[in-house]
Structure formats: structure tokens, C-alpha cells
Design a protein that fits this description.
- The structure holds 2 protein chains of 2 kinds.
- Chain A is an alpha+beta fold.
- In chain A, about 20% of the residues lie in helices and about 40% in strands.
- Chain A is globular.
- Chain A starts with 8 loop residues before the first helix and ends in a 14-residue tail after the last strand.
- The relative contact order of chain A is 0.22.
- In chain B, strands 12-18-17-16-15-14-13-20 form an 8-stranded antiparallel beta sheet, sandwiched between helices.
- In chain B, strand 10 and strand 11 form a beta hairpin.
- Helices cover about 30% and strands about 25% of the residues of chain B.
- Chain B is α+β, with helices and mostly antiparallel strands.
- Chain B is built from 15 helices and 20 strands.
- The longest helix of chain B is centred in the C-terminal third of the chain and has 18 residues.
- The chains are: A alpha+beta, B alpha+beta.
- Chains A and B meet through strand 2 and helix 3 of A and strand 12, helix 8, helix 9, helix 13 and helix 14 of B.
């Protein structure tokens, strides 16, 4: 049974802010550790309108295996596209708690964001809303799903190198 | 730098037997000439009829800088119109896709047109009496493309009146479309799941030649392949793999594998890479589906379809086809240093949903703006676009496997690492661009 204090809105919002801060700091292994074993990262091509990851395409739909692949690749000196290295900054609006299920030890949050990714002299700006499905474990809150609904998901994009 | 305008010989001189001049990739002037004389003269893929299932459905596509509309007619035919009001040039529609209803109505002055472009009505008609409007292009409605061919529901267009006819232009490479369509027991494909769209800051020909580059994966994709191998360590070869692993690990094949897969070139720049096998040959087999294909097409044809999973077929200059997984890439030049690359997935009607999953999964892993495979490709294309400007060496080398006997040979087979597939593209490019500039029939 999860202590009621875990569902404190500040605790939940702090988790989301911490998650983004790890990405901005390039601490990708620590970021991966925030996922449950069955966790997934999903950027649907139809954005908020998309019902599921199978009937329609996604910019990214990755389980732990593919996320690990992405993170491991970044450590390779032969990850050519990371020379120069990309950096990112998440600017988060206050998270809204969409649902809590104390018995099921889970919570769902929506967090509007602006995301900036830079590389050399180039800068890419994305906007949208992150939707976190969190579950409380012995180790604390973990992500079962991070879904990123972009404002204009089907636009033609240059390479997006890091995690939105 | 010499001037290329009105100088077809200067264009021809950009392509030597085994080298290509950097101006073919870098020059804005050459790009403008391409848009006007090359893209218009050759046959480009525009869309698939399944995008416009009902009468009045349209999709807007830009080709050679010209906004076009592919429209389903009331009689079921598909026509292609210039998206330009005959009056002042307003685009009739500005959504990427939609349904026009029974006619198009210009939002500016309410001129209306039938779905085939014929003029319907305009306000203050009496004001045009005796003005000569009906005798000029402005009175004739929306301009329809005259050269449109629907080949097994793939819609191709030629903008200019002059140029080769469709069958003569594509010839045997159309088998690649047959191979994909016939993977449906019903012989019918549907575009599904949306289109991944990428902006790459490189010349379109650089992207297209890389589709036939079998020597780059070893070094370009080393980081992605090593990471995948590391994660799959300890598993045996015959163990069923997750689809993503099944699709990524073959990128790590060696030079020998890519050399042995073989390639075939056709006149006009077309090619098939992987005529013997490819990185797509090892996907898990599906006995029930294979039986359904035999029932639908006969054992011989089914065998022919299934044993053939080329790496890429290029229908020069706009389309790259992967019969398995059922995926295409559409190449749209935007500027000398900017190209739109689209990745489309197909559902083969009557085939298991798994095939559509493979198409979507492959496109996502390899052709999404977030793909770690594409990241290294795109980075290197953009790097070439800059690097080529430097120094006194003005040429790109396409020497590998060059043999003077290949010149003028037409259709020919070769080893998979031979740069003949790229030389063949550039020879066709120079030939058609120069012919277009000369106004050749």
C-alpha cells in the first residue's frame, strides 16, 4: 500500500520536473532507471488525437530494449550525429493531475512543455504536452509510459536527436 | 563557376564516366534548371489512389515547386489539377487533404469548378461579356495534367508535354511495384498509418544515391548496430527476435554480404539493389499467409514474390520501394540543399496485420526524424553538403567497379557494391536535364 503522501500533487509534479531535468543534464542512464520494466516512451504521429500506437504511425514508440539501444548508442565514439553533441532544455508548465488511483498505486499527469534542442549553431523548438503514467513501486514513483503529444506532430522535421 | 542556363553541354559535362561535379549538388542555378526541365520531363510519383477513396477527396502535393491536387472524380477516376484558381492564382484548397464536395469553390471571388477542373460559375457573369475571358486560359477552368498514369494504384505524373512515355521510361523496374502489390492476396494496397516526414539539408541526388550505397552501413551505422548487438548478446541465432531487433541487426552485415546481394540497373536511372537477397530476407516466415498467396496467385507467382525482397528499388527520381517490408520513400527536392523525405507504410489487403506492423516498425526505426539509424545518415549527408564546397577537388568519386564496357549497356546486372547503380542515376539525370533544356521531344 502506497502512503497517501506519495500522492501529494507536489510530489507527483516534482517527479515530472526531475525526469525532464535528467534529460536536460544528459543523465540518460539515470533517466532510463525511472522506467518500469514494461515502461515505454511514445511520440504518436497524430499527437493527442491518436488512440493507440499500432493503427497509426509514431515518431517513436520504444520499449526498454529500444530505449537502452538509444542510450547505449550515444556512448559510442562513432555516434556521428552527436558530433557536435546536441543539448536540450525542457521548459515545463505546471503539471495537471488527470487521475490518481491510490489502490492501484498509480497516477496520470499532463504537463505542457516547450522543448528546445540545440546542435552547433542550429536550434529546434517543439511544443506539446507530456502525459506521464506513473506507478508507485518500492523504489518510489516510476514511469510506465511517457507519451509526448506534439503540437504539430506530422510536420516535416529535421533530426530530433535526444528525448523530448 | 560557369553559367549553366542555356548551356546543356555544361550540364552534360557535370557527369563524367566515373565522377560527378560538385555543382550537381551545390549550385542553385542547376537546381532551378532541374525543377524546370528535369522534374517536369521525367515521371514522378505523386500519390496512391487509396489516399482519395471517395468522390471529391483530394490530396495536395507540391512537385517542381508547383502545387497540385490529386482528386477522385465522380466517375471513380483520379485526375491531377494545378491548385491555382484560373482567375488570380489563389490555391483552391490549402489543407493537405480533404473532401471538396461536388465542386471546388475559390475562397477569394467564388469562382467554382467541377472536380475535373471545368469552369462551373462565377459571380457578375455579365461583366465578362465580350471581354475575351472565355477565349483565354483564365476562362478554361483549372488546368488538368495531361500526362497522368495510374499503375496498380500508384499515381505518376509528367508535367511537361515533351518527354518519354511512361512504359518506355520505367520499363522492367515496374516489377518492383508488382512485387509489393502482389504481396496482397487481393492484389490491393492501402496507404495507412500516416506519413513520416523529414527535412534533410542535403541535395536530393545525394539522398537518392545513398539508397544504392551498400558500403556505408558498416561505418555509418556502426554505433546503432553495436548497441543493438550488445543488447542481443547471449541470444542464439535461431531464437525468435523482437521485430525491432529482426529489423536493425541485419544493418550490421559485412561488405561481403552487401556485395553478394547484387544489383540491376535499368535505362533512365532506375535500379534494384539486392536482386539475390537483402537485409529484409531473414524476416520470420508466415506459413498461413504464404498459403493464401499461393491460393490467390498460383504457386509459381507466389514463390516469385516471396523469394524476392530487394533492399531497394529506385524508380528514378522520386520513389524508393521496399516490397518487404511494404514501405516506400518519396523524395521531394525543395532546394539545392534541402530535401523532403517521406516514409509511407502500406497495408496489403488480405495479408496478416503483422506485415503492416513490419512496415510501420521499419519506417519508424529507420526513417523517422527520431530514428538513430537515420540520424547518422542525415548527419553525413548534411556534412557532405558543406564539405564539398571546400578545396580544389571539385569532383565526387563514383569509381568503384567502373568498367568502360558498362557505357550504353542498358539493363545490366552487377555486384552489390558496384557504384554503377549511382553512375546510372547521374547519367540519366544529365541526359534528361540536357534534353529538357534543349526542348527535345
Amino acid at each position: 500500500m502506497t502512503a497517501a503522501s506519495a500522492f501529494d500533487p507536489t510530489v507527483l509534479a516534482d517527479f515530472v520536473a526531475h525526469e525532464a531535468a535528467l534529460l536536460d543534464a544528459g543523465r540518460f542512464d539515470d533517466w532510463l532507471a525511472l522506467y518500469t520494466d514494461d515502461g515505454r516512451y511514445w511520440v504518436p504521429l497524430a499527437g493527442a488525437a491518436q488512440a493507440d500506437p499500432h493503427s497509426h504511425q509514431s515518431l517513436a514508440f520504444e520499449d526498454r530494449l529500444l530505449l537502452q539501444l538509444r542510450v547505449d548508442r550515444m556512448k559510442s565514439p562513432r555516434a556521428h550525429s552527436l558530433r557536435p553533441r546536441s543539448r536540450c532544455q525542457h521548459v515545463l508548465q505546471r503539471s495537471r493531475i488527470d487521475a490518481v488511483d491510490e489502490a492501484g498505486c498509480s497516477a496520470t499527469l499532463s504537463t505542457p512543455f516547450v522543448y528546445i534542442e540545440t546542435r552547433g549553431d542550429l536550434q529546434l523548438t517543439l511544443a506539446g504536452t507530456c502525459r506521464h503514467q506513473l506507478v508507485h513501486t518500492e523504489a518510489g514513483w516510476r514511469m510506465r509510459e511517457k507519451r509526448v503529444d506534439l503540437l504539430d506532430p506530422d510536420r516535416a522535421y529535421p533530426a530530433i536527436q535526444l528525448f523530448i | 563557376m560557369s553559367s549553366y542556363r542555356d548551356n546543356p553541354d555544361a550540364i552534360r559535362a557535370l557527369v563524367q564516366d566515373e565522377r560527378v561535379h560538385r555543382d550537381a549538388y551545390l549550385s542553385d542555378e542547376v537546381f532551378e534548371l532541374e525543377q524546370r526541365h528535369f522534374v517536369t520531363r521525367t515521371w514522378s510519383f505523386l500519390g496512391h489512389t487509396s489516399q482519395v477513396p471517395a468522390a471529391g477527396d483530394y490530396v495536395a502535393v507540391e512537385l517542381a515547386g508547383q502545387p497540385l491536387l490529386m482528386v477522385r472524380q465522380a466517375d471513380g477516376a483520379v485526375r491531377v489539377l494545378h491548385n491555382r484558381c484560373a482567375h488570380k492564382g489563389t490555391q483552391l484548397v490549402t489543407d493537405a487533404a480533404g473532401n471538396a464536395g461536388r465542386f471546388f469553390r475559390c475562397p477569394y471571388h467564388a469562382w467554382t469548378y467541377q472536380l475535373d477542373g471545368a469552369p462551373l460559375a462565377l459571380p457578375l457573369k455579365s461583366g465578362y461579356e465580350g471581354t475575351g475571358l472565355t477565349q483565354c486560359a483564365s476562362g478554361r477552368g483549372l488546368e488538368a495534367l495531361k500526362h497522368v498514369v495510374v499503375y496498380r494504384e500508384f499515381v505518376f505524373v509528367r508535367l511537361a508535354d515533351a518527354g518519354p512515355d511512361f512504359d518506355a521510361y520505367f520499363g522492367g523496374v515496374l516489377d518492383a511495384i508488382d512485387n509489393m502489390v502482389d504481396r496482397s492476396p487481393q492484389g490491393r494496397l492501402t496507404v495507412a498509418g500516416g506519413v513520416l516526414r523529414n527535412i534533410v539539408h542535403c541535395n536530393w541526388k545525394m539522398y537518392l544515391e545513398n539508397i544504392n550505397d551498400t558500403v556505408h552501413p558498416v561505418s555509418t551505422h556502426e554505433s546503432a548496430v553495436q548497441a543493438a548487438r550488445g543488447l542481443w548478446q547471449g541470444h542464439t541465432d535461431d531464437e525468435p527476435k523482437p521485430m525491432a531487433m529482426e529489423q536493425i541487426l541485419p544493418f550490421g552485415a559485412g561488405y561481403d554480404f552487401f556485395d553478394r546481394m547484387g544489383g540491376r540497373v535499368y535505362p533512365n536511372g532506375h535500379s534494384v539493389l539486392g536482386i539475390h537477397f537483402s537485409i529484409h530476407s531473414g524476416y520470420a516466415q508466415l506459413p498461413e499467409y504464404e498459403q493464401a498467396l499461393r491460393d490467390a496467385h498460383g504457386a509459381e507467382r507466389a514463390q516469385q514474390i516471396l523469394e524476392r525482397s530487394p533492399q531497394n528499388a529506385v524508380l528514378f527520381p522520386s520513389l524508393a520501394v521496399k516490397g518487404s517490408p511494404q514501405a516506400i520513400r518519396v523524395i521531394r527536392p525543395l532546394a539545392a540543399d534541402r530535401t523532403l523525405i517521406e516514409a509511407w507504410s502500406f497495408r496489403a489487403e488480405g495479408a496478416p496485420e503483422l506485415l503492416f506492423e513490419r512496415a510501420q516498425s521499419y519506417n519508424r526505426l529507420v526513417f523517422s526524424p527520431m530514428s538513430v539509424v537515420a540520424h547518422d545518415d542525415v548527419h553525413l549527408f548534411e556534412s557532405i553538403q558543406r564539405g564539398l564546397r571546400s578545396g580544389t577537388n571539385e569532383w565526387v568519386s563514383l569509381h568503384r567497379g567502373f568498367d568502360a564496357a558498362e557505357l550504353g549497356r542498358g539493363t545490366a546486372e552487377t555486384n552489390g557494391t558496384n557504384e554503377l547503380l549511382m553512375r546510372n542515376q547521374f547519367r540519366a539525370w544529365a541526359q534528361h536535364l540536357a534534353a529538357g533544356m534543349e526542348g527535345a521531344p
